Amino acid sequence: MNETRSLATWPRSQAAAFGVALAGMAAALVALAADPVRAWSHLLLDTFYLLSVSLAALLFVAIQFLSAARWSACLRRIPEALMATLPAAAVLMLSLTVMRGVIAPSRHNEPVASSAKAFYLSMPFMAARAAVVLGVWVWLASLVRRTSLVEDADGGSIHHQRIKRYSAIAVVAFAITFSIASVDWLMSLDAHWVSTLFAVYLFGGLMVHGVAAVTFVAAVLHSSDRASFVTKEHLHDLGRLLFGFSTFWAYLWFSQYLLIWYGNIPEEAGHYATRTSAAWLPLFWTNLIVNWVVPFVVLLPRATKRDPRVLIGIASTVLAGRWLDLYLVILPETTARPQFGLVEVATALGAAGLLIGFTMRALAAAPLVPANDPFLAASLEHST
Q1: Pick from 219, 53, 216: which is nearest to 141 by CA?
Q2: Does a structural domain hold residue 64?
């Protein structure tokens, strides 16, 4: 069947993607020796970007199972493939966490007043937490993927129920571990800054990230002859999710900014004082435009949410916007002004190569349509 045809005809594209990844990582290693703080900062940015899209894909699958969604059953291989980058990203993040103890990139060198906070942010304890958090994520993603493939071979409702149980565990574990990771890896770059909304803000961005990635792959497959099972109804639903989560992210962006601006507490306001300074202000507003204004305006009409070309363009814009959002979270803490050069391009291309390569390899490793899913027939017949 055309719907189940493997994507094993992509070996050259996969090889090219991994080649770009290797070249980017090699350039990043060279940059670590020449300008360690700058290179480490961008490696952190791009690694967290990879973790974000992989985790969001896992959450996408979990939410569909827990809500007993039927419309998305035939699309499940897409988020499963996007999860494939998670182990490599986990190794990179653990390495960067350990390296942080040596490089310690921060413009905030004042000692932390609280001894408890200083201990919590100490390198051995932080590295141990990173190992546990990353291990839990990789373990849950592997359980979901492996059980999904077993369901293809064996059938039976028991495998569907197992994925549902794993999904429930994943959602709860994610809420705890992602909050820890957000503070450890990003918020602690300025150990004096406090925001009770920060982890939720990053969660909002993560969901936009994942939906944009799934939408992009689904729209590309729809435009090819490899996946005729992806219909305009599926694209419409993905477009609505992208529209909704981009607005959810904007709500969190505005909420965090407004509360900190209104409260004007020194340990909170300094974060935005830096990002609204002359050097960073153009990127600060571009972030809002790219991540919310553009998708909101373009996806408001029904017709655009059903047009694969429009969805590819908007999903690409949002994926680039997610990088910019993380750039504004990380880089102002390690450098005085924005910089865009070979280091930035090399690390970004390396991360993109890893994501594309692992995703294409995972798509080629199994039939595009998950066989024996009890909701598959309803998904293939889905209409709005």
Answers
A1: 53
A2: yes
Q: Output the CA torsion 240→242→248→250 (10° steps).
A: -130
Q: Which residue has the tokens 């600060």?
A: 284
Rounded alpha-carbon distances, angstroms, from residue 150 to 6, 57, 99, 147, 351: 17, 19, 39, 5, 30
Range of the domain at 81: 2-107+119-369
Q: What CA–CA distance (Å, rounded) separates 236 from 130?
A: 38
CA distances from 32 to 89, 189, 338 (A): 18, 18, 18
What number of residues does the chain have?
384
Residue 111 CA neighbour count, 13 Å, CB half: 5
- Domain total for the chain? 1
31-35, 40-44, 307-311: which range is least confident on average?
Answer: 31-35
| pLDDT attached to residue 113 | 56
Residue 23 buriedness (CB in 10 A; 0-12 / 13-18 / 19+): middle
152-210 tens-digit pLDDT: 888 778 999 999 999 999 999 999 999 999 999 999 898 888 898 999 999 999 999 99
Domain annotation covers residue 376? no
Secondary structure class of 286 (helix, strand, coil): helix
* Per-residue pLDDT tens digits for 74-95: 999 999 999 999 999 999 999 9
Residue 58 exposed, middle or buried by CB count within 10 Å (0-12, 13-18, 19+): buried
Q: Exposure string (b/e) for 86-113, b if CB count within 10 Å is 16 or more?
A: bbbbbebbbebbebbeeeebbeeeeebe
Record the pTM: 0.93
265 assigned to some structural domain: yes
pLDDT, one tens digit per residue, over 238-273 is 999 999 999 999 999 999 999 999 988 888 899 999
Q: Can you give 28-78 as a three-state secondary structure string?
A: HHHHHHHCHHHHHHHHHHHHHHHHHHHHHHHHHHHHHHHCCCCCCHHHCHH
